[in-house]
Amino acid sequence: MPCSVCTGGRSRLKLLTVSHVTKSYQGKEKLAVNNLSFELFRGECLGLVGESGCGKSTLARCLLRIESIDEGSIQFNNTAIEHLNERQLHPYRQKMQIVFQNPSAALNPKLRIKDSLVDPYDVYRKKLKLRHFSYTSKEAFVKQLLEAVELPENIANKYPHEISGGQRQRVTIARAISIEPELIVLDEPTASLDVISQGAVLDLLTKLRNTLDLSYLFISHDLAAVHQMSQRIMVMKDGNIVDQFNRDQLFSDHRHPYTKELISIF
Ligand SMILES: Nc1ncnc2c1ncn2[C@@H]1O[C@H](COP(=O)(O)OP(=O)(O)OP(=O)(O)O)[C@@H](O)[C@H]1O
After folding, report:
1. Residue whose CB lies within 8 A of the most ligand 1 atoms, among 23, 25, 49, 221, for a mutation test
2. TM spans, by residue (predicted)?
3. Residue 1, in any domain of the structure
């Protein structure tokens, strides 16, 4: 599929190749993800939109190997990762991060923000060569991360319950970028936020993608947010991808009837 929009003229290097991935629950009774295939290119934001229960989060968990898949293949940088054991997966876990909908659940309530922020780095520090940030001291590292997500320095000493939901989500984003992954799966990252915080967090994510050379899979039930963020968009329904297109083709007559339905409530 030609896609000059998504790369702005840069060459299209595949970061993730998903081939015929299937995932079911309750034996084989509940088919959550049905034979999905798609590619995600380096540097792009690929949007995935669909109503609640269509299988978006299941797909995200499968891609990150939080859950195993029943069938198919997931290649990251041309390496199949679906059969890797936990030790073999370790380097890929650094390269693929996820930001969930609920930042409160993602942060340890007993840790000060500064300690949560350095947690992922501590896991990978021996093998990690930072390109965008630098670790000279914990304080300096925390300061850089807070600056990157546009949070004030004094947040560092607070606990998660002492800051707002929008600030907590920025902290989880700072944790995700702290180890400089290549791909971040954003699973409804603004769903728990008020409208003003939503817009600000989406703007921040776009800025970070550009400055840190990130690629995103942006998952949402909100077509407007997906349209704002993504260069390409996939539409999911009942475990299937029913439509895929460049951002500027959203309103084309060729769209799938289900996409048109989503557009009608856009
Ligand atoms: N662990 C599980 N056990 C059984 N069924 C599950 C499990 N996880 C998901 N499902 C089912 O798989 C289907 C897809 O769920 P999933 O959470 O992936 O959808 P979703 O599109 O992310 O929805 P939402 O936007 O509400 O999170 C649903 O029918 C759900 O009930």
Report:
1. 25
2. none
3. no
